[in-house]
Amino acid sequence: SMTDAIAPSASADPPAVARRGPAAGAVKWLGSSGKKGNRLTAPLIVVGIVLAVLVLGSGVYVLLNQGNKHHQAATNQPSGPSVKWQPITNARIARQAAATTQADGTIWIFGGVGSNHALVANHEGYDPVIDSWKSGDDLPVPVQHAMAVTWRGNPIVLGGWRAAGAQKVASDQVWRVVNSHWVELPRLLQPRAAAAAAVVGDRIIVTGGVDANGAPLNTTEVFDGNSWTLGTPIPTPRQMLAAASDGKLVYAVGGTNGTTDLPTVEAYDPAARSWTRLPDLPQPRGDVGVAIADRRLVAVGGLSAGQVLKSVSVFDLTTNAWAGLPDMAIARHGMAVDAVGQAVFAIGGSSEVGDGQATSSAEALQLPARRIQPAAQWRSLPDAPTPRLMTAWTVLDDKIWIVGGLRDGVALSTVESYDPRAGTWQPQPPLPIPLHHAAAATYHGEVVVLGGASSDLTQASTKVFALRAGKWVELPNLTHARAALAAAVVGDKLVAVGGQNAKQLVGQTEVFDGSSWHDAADMPTPREHLAAVSDGTYVYAVGGRFLSSDKNSAAFERFDPQSGGWTKLVDMPTPRGSYGAAFIDGRILAVGGEEPTRVLGVAEMYDIADGTWSALPPMPTPRHAEAVATVGNTVYCIGGANRPTHEGPVATVEALDFI
Q: Where along the sequence do coiled-coil regions lie (predicted)?
């Protein structure tokens, strides 16, 4: 805290760095002890589709620090292989405006407009496992722009336009495939075409489209297995929209009002009988195709302002954020779109505006693995047993170990472990000496505690302790005494960075190899009260300050234990010191912090692959000097202080889930 050390000079440069010789008395290291309707999502993979490890980075709340800094950071990151649409066996006939659904891992396509611009009744299925097509009985009545869902294990075709002489008229008929034959179900409450349909539970939901006179419909109809009833009207009446279900909600996507293509996305909850407006598509899309796979809604192709699209957008249903996917090889609208497992398929359609020439071409995209995304808010958990700040912490065997710290100005030797899954705390053997402003890491399967101070920060420690067989043992001392340091592990190397001693910054980087410490390249920006995390390859030193809470740093640097060198990365958006950081699924979270007259609830996240920072929901309890650790898919924030300096220790525990 700002009372522990003198402020630096008026120069913009950090204060001078303390250098000390090796410490004596080291003890030798002894060795370590989707779906549309009720679609089935079998894990099928299309023959010829390249598996990709490209990871989607959707779900950020506010994207920060772009431009040159973004480019600089991104160029320092390894790039993964690309993912793209792959051709599959063409459909047996060319058609557009067909209805489609997936059942038992087969994509079924019904009706539509053929290559001669005439309505067709063909019923075909594509099996991704063997990359081949099969046929079923033709529809009793040829239709185009009908809807299809899978209900009680069978494909259902609803409404659409049928031929009436030279005209087309909307239909109210509903057909079901039973034992390979078509049987009629109760008719819709009114004729309807170019609408959207999906299944939630045991109910079929149909909405939008146009009636027999071509007038837009705002009505929603619900079939419960016996009869149709009216649901809540769709807020934005439109036709040529698409729909898919995640089993709870029906998502109505895009469409046109007859003159303008729309970006509108709305979700219907049949249980609550309510509609919710969601973030718009990145661009308007009419006559679009959609599918849900792996908690993502994929919008494919369509029409926009007189152009046929090949672009593809993806909506993360957890974070409610849109991102891009690779373009299709062929621009198309009115195609059949569905998903099997994590593969999305686009079949047929037309590349010409209007009722242009239909195609039989087909392609598939194997979705990149979905990245877990942060929840919309933190959740509160029961307090820790001991209110304290300036602790050391680490994770061992999925338990968070909280070590030492300060309470009411007194250094603590208290050690406790927290099992987040059980929600329980356990006392552990106390430290041999009280320590605050120390660092901890898990090394060789043991809790290791480094540096810190037992009194004030001008007398930093070189001690290193490991908890072995229930007892604390000494390891070789640090070469440089340091408190308010940070530490992390990469492979067989334990790395200590930053800190302060005797009112000076400690800039040396120390690496422990299991036997002894040695110096590596100095940190480019010496600082203390920083955080450090490891991604298994590098150590990332994040933020910190220059001996005073009014001299916070946004520096973000990466250490490579293999080469012993440092690389500067894009600065953290919020300069801060005395806070915590954690690594989760390719990203680094920085949480809390301290300024001279306030503590921070700010949470920010760095995506290592993208080289970008984003803002996360702030902690409910602003604080500094807290422990921040990841267990499973959750980041936990424990203890700290709700006031600047060393006052206001809290036992508060809050968690941010990634889902």
A: none
